[in-house]
Amino acid sequence: MIARQSAEGKRAHRTAGQDLAGRNLAGRNLAGQDLVEFALITPLLLIIILVIVEFALVVFQYNTVANVARQGARQGVVAFGTNAQIAAAAEAGAEDAAAALGLAEDRLQVDATVTGTDSKRVAVKVEYEVQLLTAPVIQALGGGKSGSFTLTATSSMIHE
């Protein structure tokens, strides 16, 4: 540190690389540098946070779709009757579970199949179209027209 005597007799300190007015030696004032850096990095941080939230929501919806498929297969396993009756019970069970869990009925497709004769295998396939929160941003950047994609989950159980 270099010290100099001021007119009032007090010492003013400055760091190396600065002139007496507190500016760097290149003559530029650094007072707004932090604000500019914050303005440049904030959009990037917000995008990262939005991507993390969007990913978490998609994982949650996938777990919900997988649970709906499992519930449908469970309903098919405990039902008795012909293969068509068991498949209908499995589809109804999956649709009921989807309604209870808040999945939109118009974006849901349930398909149940029963194979075998003695030990029947009940398989339920659930497809659900997910609408992304970031769809307008994705469309603005030219990344897609709908901003949605389909989640698919399949569950199968043996009817004994």
Strand order within the widest beta sheet: 3-4-5
The ordered H/E elements are EEHHEEHE
Task: Indicate the low-confidence ranges by residue numbers.
Answer: none
- Helix amount: 40-55%
Summed over residues and divided by their number, the pLDDT gives a mean of 83
Shape: rod-shaped
Number of strands: 5
**Alpha carbon gap, first and last residue:** 87 Å
Return the structural class.
alpha+beta
Q: Sketch the major β-sheet.
A: 3 strands, antiparallel
Features:
two-stranded antiparallel sheet; 5 strands; 160 residues; rod-shaped; alpha+beta; three-stranded antiparallel β-sheet
Outline the secondary-structure elements.
Blueprint: E1 2-5, E2 11-14, H1 33-78, H2 83-100, E3 108-115, E4 120-131, H3 135-140, E5 148-159
Antiparallel strand pairs: 1-2, 3-4, 4-5
What's a concise summary of this model?
The chain is α+β, with helices and mostly antiparallel strands and 160 residues long.
Written account of the structure:
The protein is an alpha+beta fold and 160 residues long. It is built from three helices and five strands.
